[in-house]
Amino acid sequence: MRLIFAGTPEPAVVALRRLLDTDHEIVAVITRPDARRGRGRTLHPSPVSALAQEHGIEVLTPTTLKPGTEDGEALRARLAELAPEAIPVVAYGNLITKDLLDVAPHGWVNLHFSLLPAWRGAAPVQAAINAGDDITGASTFRIEEGLDTGPVLGTVTETIRDTDTADDLLTRLAYSGAELLAATMDGLEAGAIVPHEQAGEPTYAHKISTEDARINWDAPATAVDRHIRAHTPAPGAWTVLGEDRLKVGPVTEAPDAEALDAGELRVIKSEVQVGTGSGVVTLGHVQPPGKKMMDAAAWARGNATIHGQQKVSFS
């Protein structure tokens, strides 16, 4: 089939690479405009844009898809010229307006990293870990006006491991989802896919703010563990010690440790333990302000606040 691919970040690159290995023809990609990054704030293309340029594929970077705007109208004109049969989408990051949904015979086909209707929205991987789900997966579906409400074309499942961070799980789903997206394109071309409406009560995964990532030490140890893993690496789970805001890496539960109040710290030999609402956890790594992630015990040994007080606590 003749495809236009829409996507922006690194997980979308995996899917684009997979589609490039198929017999489908990718005539263009739609991605977010170049963004300023790094200390020099220089402009960088999105990961999808960079890969497309490597393969000599036309790159379209509208700032908006809204009709009546210069970028929106230019995109509509180009889509009409390119005449795609389907537009696979992976984490594109821009609202697709109603009038564009029928621009291709097979529509815009989104790869979403959950088993719909579970975790519709912007952060399904993080939500699944934070909720303690055992199983998640990826779905391909035809985009319609509602938020991730369209008919499902295919699914693949993935077990959530006890140590999975959001990055770990998203990496696996990016690869299994890429295979699913390629198979969906094949099935649409062959006329072998029967779309089915989503069944069951939907749940929602809203966009995560920095404030959402703050650790609540009054929560049970299992919930603290899941919360930290769900927000690793971005935006990074965090807490406060005195006037310092610290990012905290994944923890392990310490069921045999002597009790601590929620948020209270204890340094034992090469361990830093913290109390929660139902037990004690051991810190793995922390990131003090202006520094890189470091071993929690090394951080504690060099922290005068911890050594200078009988009792200190996170808040």
From TrEMBL:
- Is Transferase found in the keyword set? yes
Record-listed E.C. numbers: 2.1.2.9
Domain Formyl transferase N-terminal, chain residue ranges per copy: 4-182
Note the SUPFAM superfamilies from the entry.
FMT C-terminal domain-like, Formyltransferase
Q: In the record, what terms sit under GO molecular function?
A: methionyl-tRNA formyltransferase activity
Keywords from UniProt, A to Z, are:
Protein biosynthesis, Transferase
User: Superkingdom, according to UniProt?
Assistant: Bacteria
Listed under GO cellular component are: cytosol
What sort of enzyme, by top EC class, is this?
A: transferase
Q: Which reaction equation describes what this protein catalyses?
A: L-methionyl-tRNA(fMet) + (6R)-10-formyltetrahydrofolate = N-formyl-L-methionyl-tRNA(fMet) + (6S)-5,6,7,8-tetrahydrofolate + H(+)
> Binding of (6S)-5,6,7,8-tetrahydrofolate: at which residues?
S114, L115, L116, P117
Q: Residue limits of the Formyl transferase C-terminal domain?
A: 207-303
Q: Which residues form a coiled coil?
A: none
Regarding protein family, the annotation reads: Belongs to the Fmt family.
Explain the purpose of this protein.
Answer: Attaches a formyl group to the free amino group of methionyl-tRNA(fMet). The formyl group appears to play a dual role in the initiator identity of N-formylmethionyl-tRNA by promoting its recognition by IF2 and preventing the misappropriation of this tRNA by the elongation apparatus.
Q: What is this protein called?
A: Methionyl-tRNA formyltransferase
Q: Which organism is it from?
A: Corynebacterium testudinoris
